[in-house]
Design a protein that fits this description.
Keywords: Membrane, Transmembrane, Transmembrane helix
Radius of gyration: 19 Å
Helix content: over 70%
Number of strands: 0
Number of helices: 5
Strand content: under 5%
Order of helices and strands: HHHHH
Structural class: mainly alpha
Shape: globular
Distance between the termini: 33 Å
Largest sheet: none
Number of domains: 1
Length: about 150
């Protein structure tokens, strides 16, 4: 279970890193073509107007989240995994609700794709990984206590 948890935390870190680098360092490109890399959806631009400051802030906020995911994946402690996934969930749930209420400018296929991808990546996946941290709790409590190797206390 640790390997799966670490892999999913890494996936979330890659997601935030990708969005962060793109929006933070190429805000106009993210606005015009985003938010799915390599696919020109234009979904961000469908909600004008362009604001470079807000797009960059979104990008750098995602890079900040990436730092948390890197530490969580490296240390893989329950509290770090839960903190990282809860932070993304706190962003993802209202973000998904907002988009689900503003679909009139999109085709039916785009609307479904937007809601499914947003829900899956920023609500469902973080919630699943948050729950998986419970298995990390059990694994830590099953480990014998570490002894000090130097004999000092």
């Amino acid at each position: 279970m640790r390997a799966w948890t670490r892999a999913l935390v890494i996936v979330l870190g890659l997601l935030t890193a990708t969005l962060g680098v793109w929006a933070g360092f190429a805000p106009r490109s993210f606005y015009d073509d985003g938010p799915i890399p390599l696919i020109d959806t234009g979904w961000v631009a469908a909600l004008p107007p362009y604001n470079e400051h807000l797009v960059r802030d979104y990008g750098f906020m995602n890079l900040g989240m990436t730092v948390i995911f890197v530490v969580a994946a490296t240390r893989l402690t329950p509290v770090l995994v839960r903190t990282a996934t809860a932070a993304l969930f706190v962003f993802g749930l209202p973000h998904t609700v907002f988009h689900s209420r503003h679909l009139d400018h999109m085709s039916g296929a785009d609307a479904v794709t937007l809601i499914v991808t947003t829900s899956a990546l920023t609500v469902v996946l973080p919630a699943v990984v948050f729950a998986m941290a419970g298995a990390l709790d059990r694994a830590e409590s099953d480990r014998p206590a570490r002894r000090l190797s130097s004999g000092r206390r």
